[in-house]
Write a structure and sequence with these properties.
By secondary structure, this protein is of the alpha+beta class. It has 12 helices and 13 strands. It has a 6-stranded antiparallel β-sheet, sandwiched between helices. The chain has a 5-stranded mixed β-sheet with strand order 8-10-11-13-12, with helices on one face. It has a two-stranded antiparallel ribbon with strand order 7-9.
């Protein structure tokens, strides 16, 4: 019966139990024969009852065993499901850790970009010592232009004497520093008198040069010089020399750039003390950021090793890394605020200069001088607007140039056309973003061409229309078109070689941006520019 229950199931066990009871009854009757008595009947009942109880007990025991096996299988399935859930949880936590690593790398890249921007903003305000700043400029100019010598002179109050303050020369630096030169008998003096950079590639045949006492006369010596100018005032000059290769126009542009840097350095020396504390705070913040990065990298390595030993520690690691990322984000936000403050201060300083020019213009009665002051004021305003847009923008490296063009042209229209005929402005501007390096020259180009249209296209206060178009050409170039319905530009005017300061500035800035300028004289004047902004 037990074997039947185990092999064939509960119902088969009951059938076998009943058959066994009948078989025992039959055997009992055969054995008793005719001698069957009441006692035998009682024994028979006892045996049958015992078999029935045994069958019931076996049925109960088998049901318990079956239920136990079913519970065991269910527990085994639940355990397997729990293991699968734990494995899925582990994989999810590992994915979170990997995602945090990617985020940390992105934050480090963004921080590196901001550090580069901070370094560029700090170059002209790195020291209170003017001589130290000029020495750095001279050394950099010497290296970039591959010259044997470089000297920086300051113009004395008599406006005729140039005194050397910096000299870079392997053999004759002391002799150069010991000798003052005259404005009227030196190459450097000629550049000061002309108020522009000049190249002297044929010094052997040019008697206007000055030989510093104690230095040898060199054959095939080339000289290049440029003055330091601040608000049309000459402060000094830089002079470089070399033997052999001639200086080029590109070299002159570079030297004039260094001269502009030196001019700015002389002016910034007065402002540097106020910025010194701010620069020191940025250095501390950068060191704190680096320490946070180092700490974060160490924790990542430790948590990665611990992951192989105990998955339970993953939750604590994620929380710790979140706190570290919050610190990094807070530090990054602090640096963004510092950059915004720099642009805000530059904008304020340029607006002060613009206001000073405006105040000066109110005291001028000469129309030509007044026009020059107004043009200078508008150029300064165009640069100040760049820094204002950067200060207001969430992206400190680029500005919305289309919005900038609208604001600048509307300002210029209000300034030039007050009380005159109506000028209608038509804009066809696509979304264009321009980096900070190209934004200033692009803004000055718009200022000059739009101002030129306002001043000359509509004489006698007549009205008309000015159309401005802006679009992207490709990833590196933009196309700018400024046209008017005015009287046009005569054929006798050569735009590329015009003596006008505005057109000279436009051509110089277009060349600086590796761009092109095309003029269409039909139906007014139409300037089409293709500019490289990246």
């Amino acid at each position: 019966i037990i074997l039947a229950a185990l092999l064939l199931g509960e119902q088969a066990a009951l059938i076998f139990g009943a058959l066994s009871a009948l078989a025992i009854l039959a055997l009992f009757l055969l054995a008793a024969g005719d001698s069957l008595v009441e006692e035998n009947i009682g024994q028979l009942v006892t045996v049958v009852t015992t078999l029935g109880l045994t069958t019931v007990l076996l049925r109960f025991a088998l049901k318990s065993i079956k239920d136990g096996l079913a519970d065991s299988r269910r527990n085994e399935q639940a355990l397997a499901e729990s293991n699968r859930q734990l494995l899925a949880s582990r994989e999810a936590l590992q994915a979170q850790v990997a995602e945090r690593d990617v985020l940390a790398n992105a934050l480090r890249q963004k921080t590196t970009q901001l550090e580069h921007l901070l370094q560029a903003a700090r170059q002209l305000t790195s020291s209170l010592n003017t001589k130290e700043v000029l020495s750095r400029i001279a050394a950099t100019a010497t290296d970039l232009l591959n010259t044997e010598g470089c000297a920086i002179y300051m113009l004395e109050p008599d406006k005729q004497t140039l005194t050397p303050v910096v000299s870079i020369d392997r053999e004759y630096a002391e002799e150069i520093l010991a000798a003052t030169i005259r404005v009227d008998n030196s190459f450097t003096g000629q550049a000061v008198t002309a108020r522009r950079g000049m190249i002297f590639n044929e010094t052997d045949s040019d008697p206007s040069g000055f030989q510093v006492p104690g230095t040898p006369e060199e054959t095939d010596e080339r000289v290049i010089a440029a003055p330091f100018m601040i608000e049309d005032t000459v402060l000094g000059a830089i002079c470089l020399s070399r033997v052999g290769p001639w200086f080029t126009g590109e070299d002159l542009a570079l030297v004039e750039t260094f001269a502009a840097y030196a001019s700015t350095a002389l002016k910034n020396a007065q402002m540097y003390q106020a910025l010194q504390q701010e620069v020191e705070e940025r250095k501390k913040a950068r060191r704190a950021l680096q320490a946070a990065h180092n700490e974060l990298e160490q924790r990542v390595e430790e948590r990665t090793r611990a992951l192989l030993l105990a998955n339970a520690q993953l939750s604590d690691e994620v929380q710790e890394r979140k706190r570290a990322e919050e610190k990094i984000q807070a530090s990054l936000q602090e640096k963004v605020v510092l950059l915004q403050e720099i642009h805000h201060r530059v904008k304020n300083n340029l607006q002060i200069i613009s206001s000073l020019l405006h105040l000066q213009s109110t005291t001028v009665t000469d129309p030509q001088t007044l026009a020059v002051l107004q043009e200078s004021q508008h150029r300064v305003r165009s640069m100040a607007l760049i820094h204002e847009k950067l200060y207001q923008s969430t992206n400190l490296a680029r500005i919305d140039f289309a919005d900038y063009v609208k604001n600048l042209t509307r300002y210029l229209l209000r300034s030039y056309r007050a009380g005159q005929g109506t000028i209608n402005l038509e804009y066809k501007l696509e979304p264009v973003e321009v980096g900070i390096d190209a934004a200033v020259p692009c803004g000055l180009i718009v200022n000059e061409l739009f101002t030129n249209a306002l001043k000359h296209a509509f004489p006698d206060g007549r009205g008309g229309k000015i159309c401005i178009k802006l679009c992207n050409v490709d990833d590196e170039h933009i196309q700018l078109e400024i046209s008017d319905s005015g009287v046009g530009i005569p054929d006798s005017v050569d735009v590329e070689n015009s003596p006008s300061l505005g057109l000279l500035l436009v051509n110089s800035l277009v060349n600086q941006l590796n761009g092109s300028l095309t003029l269409n004289r039909a139906n007014g004047a139409e300037f089409l520019l293709n500019l490289k902004v990246k």
